[in-house]
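Look over this one:
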Amino acid sequence: TAQADESASPSAISLKKTIYNELKTMESFSRTKAIGMVDPFNYAVWKQSGVLTFRGGPFRQNAAYGTVNVSRNSLTELWKAPVGSKRLSKSTVHGIAWPGQPIIVKWPTEVRNLMNLNDEKKNTTALKEVILGGQDGIIYFLDLIDGQETRTPIDMGAPSGSGASIATNGTPILGIGQSHSNLSNKQVPNGYHLYNLLNGKELLLLDGRDKAANTNYSGASGAALFDKQTQTVVMGGQNGVLYTVELNETFDHLAGSLKIDPAIQRYKALAAKQDKKRSNIDGSVAMYNSYVFYGDESGMLQCVDINTLSPVWAVKTGDDINATPALDFEEDSQTLALYTGNSIVYQGKSGVSTLRRYNALTGEEDWAYEVPDLGYSTEFKFGCMASPVVGEHAIDDLVIFTVTGGKGGSQVIALTKADGGVAWTRKLDSESESSPVAVYSDSGQAWLVQAERNGSVHLMDAKTGEILNTLTLPGEIE
């Protein structure tokens, strides 16, 4: 049970919440179907499901599924697929934007047979489908093995700068955010989209411009979590609103039909003297049991009980939180840890990027590490933009962060979970907002895959930080 430490009490920063049920304000709320994500490693209802959301699940620890057999310590390009661009009112956007992680789904056979897959892919044994949204407004569906199109792409009509998510109860529903609304010749609605993957049609748009919005940002860059027991979606918008969508779905396998009857709740909160224009939630929310964890642009980090839509604890970390927080349940001590880091945006010339560990159930800070050789810059993306790897197996004592110094290069930093001590540091030549991915062998040996802006993708020894191999790709990588 979560209970705020005295230092993290919402009252200490005069946190004021507002709750909406279908856009009607309420003094209190109690969920009929209680949410409790208590087993993050059994996130999906079907086996061999894949990477179904940004950083793999509600703990947001990593972005890989299964194990690897590494024999040559090398990276090789297997295929590539083109991504286009989109004209906006004042610029043109290209490619895949931050955070932009694809999801990889191995569908249950009975669901795959109902979807609008291309004939040759529908009959592919154990098809693994890669899904990601581009800034050209297209949602791509590709075969993991050969990179070929698995179905007709979905045209959102506006850019996506979001991680995607798939429903975890076997229902073919895709969630993905939109990043812009002012196109070259018109303005379009903006927010978080849900799509029916039987036919590619939109089921719902959570419009970021409704009256609950805290900020003028209306897009969504975070990836939602789907609770498989209650059919509820949990996500944070760049308008500063935490959403829960009770889907009340009806999936008829015999008729091949899918319908939802959504009930939507909203939560927002502001601390005393907090500029509401800086309350946007740019990362994804993390969850344990009924507790949701997220940070905002002002640097406020909070824990919210999703079943009552009430704050449990909240702290001011000092600057913009872009990176999605990561959780770790330590069985030996029965401790739930939360790892997070700041960008350097509003602190001024004395600003620092600080990596922290909190007790996730109380909000008490366990340790803080100030990244050295990283001073203030006018560059926008500067500091901790990437989400950390929470180590397992051979690196179960480490948490690994990537911090960008802009044009001055980046650092990959492995800290010990227990006290925040530095285990190793590896400097990279260019900036990197790309979250590292850990992969493990059956015996527990650990490697790290880390990309940087100049097109380099590194294979690293996760225990030592040694770069074992580098694959150089054309173009820039976010």
